[in-house]
Amino acid sequence: MHAFLRSTILASVLTSAYAQYTPQSCDWLSNTCNKNVTDLNNVWNSTACAQYALCQQNERTPASVLQWLGAPTDQPRLTQSAFSGLSQGADTLTNDTYSTGYQAAVKAAGGTYDSQADDRTVNGQYLIAAAWTNSCDGSISYSSLADWFEHSSNPGTCPAVTSCDGQYAALNKPCGTQPAEDNGSCKAIRDQCEFWITQGAWQNEYCALGAMCSSAEGATPDVMIRTIYPTYVSNEDIPTAGSIDRLSTDAFHNMTGGADTMSLQNAIDAYYGALTNTWTSLGGPFGAESPSRSGNNGPYPTSSDYITGFWKSVAAWTGNCDTLEIGYDNLADWFQYSSDNSNNSTC
Questions:
Q1: What separation in angstroms does the CA of 50 have from each of 20, 139, 140, 260?
Q2: Which residues form the signal peptide (predicted)?
Q3: Beta-bridge partners for 279
Q4: Is 246 left (phi over 0), alpha (psi -120 to 50) or beta?
Q5: How many CA atoms lie within 13 A of 214 on its CB side?
Q6: What is d(CA 188, CA 206) in angstroms, rounded to the nearest whole number?
Q7: Residue 16 pLDDT > 60, yes or no?
Q8: Average model confidence (pLDDT) across the chain
Q9: Handedness of CA 213, 215, 218, 224 (dihedral sign)
Q10: H or E stretch at 273
């Protein structure tokens, strides 16, 4: 599987300059949502603009759509009228009504909808909004979608779950910010993870540590993976945390020093160890780089309290707050399942 994934990624580099994150037909909606035809003081009263914001969500947040329009940032909430336009008059928005409404909106804007090109991406757009609103049961209520328009652009406001599907993460980047004590260390860990991620993120300690430290900024393992993959790799070619092989025992023991459980001190030692004599690239495309030891160290966190913070979050998810020691199975479960079952708690 890993060899196939790597060859798929390398083929994507040659055949596609950018990932198809947005439906090809989405730009047609700018004919019916623009500064010349939209009430800029009540943008989310426009079904067309609401539809445009939804289909643009992997490229623009609702706030950046307002900026593009030249509209004030302090907007009234999504109106019931606009929601009814999205849902075809139903009380809730489903995948089917979203797709039907979207296709009708494209036609009304004078555009064309190519089912073969857009069906999967439009479905993914719905699943992203459903994940953010914790509506994976199949329908999004008016109030939940209004919350998405009002709050999803705010830094630090994280989705309820990363994805309803696994293929489409609700965020393509961390939704929060790292504590000051991070000092750039988590990015340095993730930069090293890049060299081996196509072989399976949980087969090496760098990606494992990168996923854990990314949780300090509100990123699930799914989001961490998507952060590392280049933007030219399409959604379909980016694996999810749960679709790849479980944490290898070798990676686990590299972090524990051979112990059967991973303690807070193990986490601290492994994190600092991963930042000592760091790996750098001697060249090559993503998925086929040639890593080499650099002889350089850091940047290290300014305090080990930073590691304690994210380790306590992992321990809370695994139910190990009493000892802060996590066994292999529980830690492997965190990497594989926490993206879809996050509880945002800590010890």
A1: 21, 17, 14, 52
A2: 1-19
A3: 293
A4: beta
A5: 29
A6: 10
A7: no
A8: 87
A9: positive
A10: helix 264-274
Annotated domain spans of the chain: 22-151, 180-337
Q: What is the pTM of this model?
A: 0.65
Retrieve residue 164's tokens. Answer: 């309803």
Of 140, 199, 208, which Cα lies nearest the Cα of 170? 140
Confidence tier at 186 by pLDDT (50, 70, 90): very high
What does the CA dihedral 290, 294, 299, 300 come to, rounded to 10 degrees? 100
Quote the CA–CA distance of 81 and 54 in Å, as a whole number.
16
pLDDT digits 0-9 by tens, 81-116: 999 999 999 999 999 999 999 999 999 999 999 888
| Best CA proximity match to 47, nearest among 7, 16, 82, 8 | 82
**Pairing relationship of beta strands 92-94 and 139-141 according to DSSP bridges:** antiparallel
Strands 326-327 and 261-262: antiparallel
Q: Which of 57, 50, 49 has its CA nearest to residue 30?
A: 49
What pLDDT was estimated at residue 6? 32
Has residue 138 got a pLDDT over 90? no
Please give the pLDDT value at position 18.
29
* The length of the chain, given as a count of residues: 347
